[in-house]
Fold this sequence. Notes:
Helix 2 crosses helix 9.
Amino acid sequence: MSNDTNVTWHESSVSRQMREKRNGHKGCVIWFTGLSGSGKSTVANTLDHKLYHAGYHSVVLDGDNVRHGLNAGPGMLKATHGEEFSNRFGLGFSAIDREENIRRIGAVADIFARTGIIALTAFISPYRIDRDKVRNTLNPGEFIEVFVDAPLEVCEQRDPKGLYKKARAGEIKGFTGIDDPYEEPLAPELVLQSATKTPDILADEIISFLTDKGIIHA
Ligand SMILES: Nc1ncnc2c1ncn2[C@@H]1O[C@H](COP(=O)(O)OP(=O)(O)OP(=O)(O)O)[C@@H](O)[C@H]1O
Ligand SMILES: [Mg+2]
C-alpha cells in the first residue's frame, strides 16, 4: 500500500464560517496575471494597504518573494538528505517548473481563502491552463482573476528590473513576452488598464468589485 492512501483530510474544528464571521468578510483569492512590469505587485500592494486600513484581513503572495522561499530555484536550496534535492525540488522558469510554481501558490492561496483571508497573488502565471487549474480547486466565485493589461511596449519601457533589456540581449532565455508565451485570460473577472490608470484607481476598481460581490462590505 502506498503512503498516499494513508493520508486523509482532517476537518478543522474551527469552521470557515466561524472565521469569516469574526473577520467580517469572506475569504477569496485575487489572482493577478500579466506581463512582467504590467503592475501586478504594485496594484496588489496598493490594494493590500487599502484593505488593511479598512480593517480587512489580506495577504500578498508575490512572485519574487515566493521564489526566494517556498519555491526557491535550483541551487538556492540546501538539503541534508542528498545532493540531488535542489534539482528535484527547486523551480526555474521552464513550462513544467512554471506549472509547479503556480500549483504550489494556488495551494497556499487556497489555504488562506479557507481561513477567511483575502489572498492576493502577483505572478506572471503565463499559462491559461495553470490558472484554470487553480480556479477549479476553489469554490465558484472565490477565484477572482484580474488581468493586469499593459502593452508589451509599455512594460518594456518601464523595465524597473532591467529584465527586458537582458532578455533582448539574449542574457535571459525564455522571458515571457519576448521568447516565451503569455496567454491572456479569456474570461477574467476584471481587466485593469494599467498603462493608462494609476495603481490607486485600479485598486479602487477591485474594491468596488469585492463590494458588489458581497466579499467585503462598504
Ligand atoms: N498603473 C500604473 N501606472 C504607472 N506605472 C505603474 C503602474 N503600475 C505599475 N507601475 C510601474 O511599473 C513598474 C512595474 O510594476 P510592477 O513591479 O508592479 O510589475 P509586475 O507586474 O509585478 O512585474 P513582475 O512580473 O516583473 O514582478 C514599476 O516601476 C511600477 O512603479
Ligand atoms: Mg511583481
